[in-house]
Amino acid sequence: MKNRFFNLAVALAMACGSFVLASCDDDDDNKSEYSYSGIYAFINMSSDVEGAITASDLDSCTISLTSTQSKDVYTFTVSKETLDANGNGQVKVYIPVGTYDISLEKSANGKTIFFRKENVTIKDENQNVDVTLIATVAQQSDFQFIFSEIFFNGERNAGRMMHPDQYMVVYNPTDNVLYADGLAIGCTMQASCTEKESWYDEYYNAGKVPVHGIIVIPGTGYEHPVKPHEKLVIAFNAINHTETEGSYEETNEETGETTTVTYKYENAVDLSGADFEIYDPQLYTSDVDNPEVPNVLEIYPAESDLGGIGGFYQHPRGFYCPFIFKLENGTQETLDKFKTENTSVASVQDKDGNSVDIQMLSVKAADILDGITTGHIPSDIVTNPLPQTVDRGKQLVKGCHSGLLVQRKGNDQDGYADTNNSTEDCEIVTPQHAFPAGWRNK
User: Fold this and answer.
1) The whole model's pTM is what?
2) How far is it, in rounded angstroms, from Cα 178 to Cα 157?
3) What Å distances lie between residue 50 and 84, 133, 273, CA to CA?
4) For residue 332, which of 220, 234, 224 has the smallest C-alpha distance?
5) 297 HSE (CA, 13 A, CB side)
6) Using alpha carbons only, what angle is made at residue 408 by residues 405 and 413, rounded to the nearest 5 degrees?
7) What secondary structure letter does DSSP report for 254?
8) Tens digits of per-residue pLDDT, 191-242?
9) pLDDT single digits (tens) 309-353
10) What is the CA radius of gyration of the chain?
């Protein structure tokens, strides 16, 4: 493979957010400096997320164009002086007519900046090629989404219990843009209100946390950027629950007549502006799908716990604790691979006391980024469903359907407390928050 090295200045002309081509110097037309015949083309770079990349981040990095036929590599150096504040710019290149794989990659300030574009045919003079720069944290261990809110408790409306408006909020506490593709949330299979299950020590002593089910943000890796100190809302039903009506039958004891009483969900909130929705008619037979809100993907355990809950489920008393971890991306292939690699055989007791082998899905404790141990006051925490390395505290609600929200202390702008001790880091507040359509712009 031959390498062609050139130090070309990056020609930048940005006006009102759009690229403007600058005129070439006279000596640009003198192609005798090159040892081959070629044409001029322009690589138009723009950042995926405003504020994620600076000109200094890109200084001295190299754009490579690799011929798909000859495999010759043509490289061009970027200079920060000709980039705007967000690293947007236009690189002028001189290359032979052909088809190329074009790429850039550089590590800077704890993040990796890159773009890749394959099979680009360059055949016209002054042809423009648009590419998108991605900035992501360099190490997987730095990928640190945390919970800022968890509303599992539900509320009562006209005396009726309700929890379809459960939701979770995940927050980016870092100074880097994080991509939510493959962000996964599991709910523990061990309940916080019961004694250890028969398989508990076998898994927890091996650094594994068994799960009822897992939800995953879809995407190929870089489809869902979350800026520093911004958040994503995941709703069980992403609808306006305040518009929901319920009804029940009431019988007059004196006359025996039965009438239908309708009521509004006055204690519910509007979640139609959620970023993602959990739509699972397999687990929730009356589930409602909002077509305007993308659905999460799910990983079901290979086998339910002998009639128990199989799938992602938040108990209104907090018995099954939520936690966050990260997959490489949110494609079905990655989910299937994770399930295969993390399913094993566990022995449980059936209702007659017999030992039965089942397939158990688990997550490595070392991969958990954040989690909150939840339960209710009457039982307290009988068994820790989350390792102490994830959460050495707890948050307890006084009962089910009391409208109680577990909220991390702090705020979006300044950040949230995160010492892996939810007793100190979180608090119980009421009522829960609404996330109507357009809530970010209000």
Assistant:
1) 0.79
2) 38
3) 11, 10, 22
4) 220
5) 21
6) 120
7) T
8) 999 999 989 999 999 999 999 999 999 999 999 999 999 999 999 999 998 8
9) 678 989 999 999 999 999 999 999 999 999 999 999 988 877 787
10) 27
